[in-house]
Design brief:
This protein is α/β, with parallel strands linked by helices and 455 residues long. It has three domains: 238 residues, Di-copper center containing domain from catechol oxidase (di-copper center containing domain from catechol oxidase, Orthogonal Bundle), CATH 1.10.1280.10; 102 residues, no CATH class; 77 residues, Immunoglobulin-like (Sandwich), CATH 2.60.40.3080. It is 25% helix and 23% strand. A hairpin with a 7-residue loop joins β16 and β17. α4 packs across α9 and α8 runs antiparallel to α9. It is globular, with a radius of gyration of 24 Å. Bound molecules: copper (II) ion (CU). Copper (II) ion binds next to loops.
């Protein structure tokens, strides 16, 4: 009976929930994505008002330390004798997930972006533009006072916290110190007090804190919680007539457990993840820059996943799509979610057994897998280029052909070489600035084309 109920819960959640996400710096969002996010916040405010509910809850259960009642669970500033200690990181991770799922009901390909407050510190930053986060200040009466009531953390502040190895010391220092508290105080107004989730910037800040914890956890592997459920996520709380599931904080120590990966600097590494279709079928991951799928990213039999980029997807050894699974990888020219919907199925990838031969699933999607586990790694630089482009392979190849073409495919310059791992095209200074395709063919195998920018 218990199993049947569990199964039913899984079925219900897979029908209603969406979140699989690659969260990126908001600076990497297109104008379209920003508009979708902004509209999402307005819609969530005007429709059921999840934002107010999360704000009210956060306010009501902020911190009860001054009540001297250790049985009253709260979210913040846990003391050593509190049973929920130290729930800050896990609670806000689940809160971000709840918000992101609601956003994805509006647009399935939107993810919550993050604000890296250690480097993005100006009140004149695009973050606060009137067409982005700026407009909420007046619209929602947030009383922000950017920069007037606190300081933001420096990269060194962040490095200092990340160097702590004990989880309880780490969590406590992260929460109370400038890395977390800085953005709350610096923003001011609603953001600086217990109702802070009413300011949309709260979600861009807490995804950053979540990313910081994820990176710490990947190094230290020691996060753990005493309690086995969390306030709001204890199986008794309903929002808009929907009972929220019970969440054991120890089950969400890795953000991948919620289908969440973090990208930064135009790169995301997707590893140690098994597609389960718990929340969505297929699980769809979208990031317009470089996606590397590697160690222990597994699509089991009968499971389904889609990965979409506008630039580059590399499938590396350790990635595995089982027979009978469905795995789609697609390069989409547009970075709008609207045009990213048109996907088509690709058969489960047949691993290539010949070294240096690359499998092209679709256009710019490459797998550099080989039976022996030997990998062809290649690197172009510089990008953007000015007068030459150099290609480096990790191993010598019998023959390398390298050519540059315009985006219509018209070849402009070509070079080839044998028994080498390095080759360059020079004399490109007269090409007009813009986008080109650099093509590589190793040992007469498949042709790889990558976008490259002429400055
Ligand atoms: Cu909080």
């Amino acid at each position: 009976m218990a199993r049947l109920i569990t199964l039913l819960i899984l079925l219900i959640s897979s029908a209603s929930a969406h979140s699989q996400s690659i969260r990126k710096n908001y600076t990497e969002m297109t104008g379209y994505e920003k508009a979708v996010l902004v509209n999402g916040f307005f819609e969530l405010r005007n429709n059921g008002d999840l934002i107010n509910d999360l704000s009210q809850f956060h306010n009501d259960f902020f911190n009860f330390d001054n009540t001297f009642d250790p049985t009253r669970l709260d979210i913040h500033f846990n003391l050593p004798d509190e049973p929920e200690r130290d729930i800050f990181c896990a609670w806000h991770r689940r809160q971000m997930f709840e918000m992101e799922q609601a956003m994805q009901q509006i647009d399935p390909l939107i993810s919550l972006p993050f604000w890296n407050s250690t480097i993005d510190q100006s009140p004149a930053s695009p973050l606060w533009d009137e067409n982005f986060m700026g407009q909420f200040n007046a619209a929602w009466g947030l009383n922000r006072n950017l920069g007037a009531t606190g300081v933001l953390p420096s990269p060194q502040d962040l490095a200092n916290v990340q160097s702590i190895s004990d989880f309880l010391v780490y969590s406590n220092t992260l929460e109370r110190g400038v890395v977390h508290a800085g953005a709350h105080r610096w923003t001011g107004g609603v953001m600086s007090g217990p109702p802070s989730p009413r300011d949309p910037i709260f979600y861009l800040h807490h995804t950053f804190i979540d990313k910081v914890w994820q990176e710490w956890q990947e190094v230290n592997q020691t996060s753990s919680f005493i309690i086995t459920s969390m306030i709001r996520y204890d199986g008794t709380y309903s929002f808009n007539g929907q009972l929220l599931p019970l969440v054991n904080p120890n089950d969400i120590i890795d953000s991948r457990s919620l289908g969440v990966f973090y990208a930064d600097n135009q790169q995301v590494v997707m590893d140690n993840y098994t597609v389960s279709n718990t929340y969505k079928t297929p699980e769809t991951f979208f990031y317009q820059y470089n996606i590397e799928v590697c160690d222990n990213f597994v699509v089991p039999q009968e499971k389904e996943s889609k990965i979409i980029s506008a630039n580059r997807i590399v499938l590396k050894p350790g990635f595995h799509a089982a027979n009978g699974s469905k795995f789609h990888a697609r390069i989409d020219e547009e970075t709008t979610s609207a045009s990213s919907q048109q996907l088509f199925a690709t058969a489960p990838p047949a691993y290539n057994t010949k070294q240096f031969e690359l499998i092209d699933y679709q256009k710019n999607v490459y797998a550099d897998l080989s039976e022996k586990g030997e990998v062809l790694k290649y690197k172009f630089h510089p990008n953007p280029f000015v007068s030459n482009i150099e290609l480096n392979l990790t191993d010598n190849a019998e023959r390398i052909d390298l050519w540059i073409s315009d985006i219509r495919g018209i070849e402009l310059r070509r070079t080839s070489a044998g028994n080498t791992s390095q080759i360059a095209i020079s004399g490109l200074e007269n090409l007009a600035p813009g986008m080109y395709i650099i093509n590589i063919q190793v040992n007469g195998g498949r042709i790889i084309g990558e976008k490259i920018i002429k400055r």
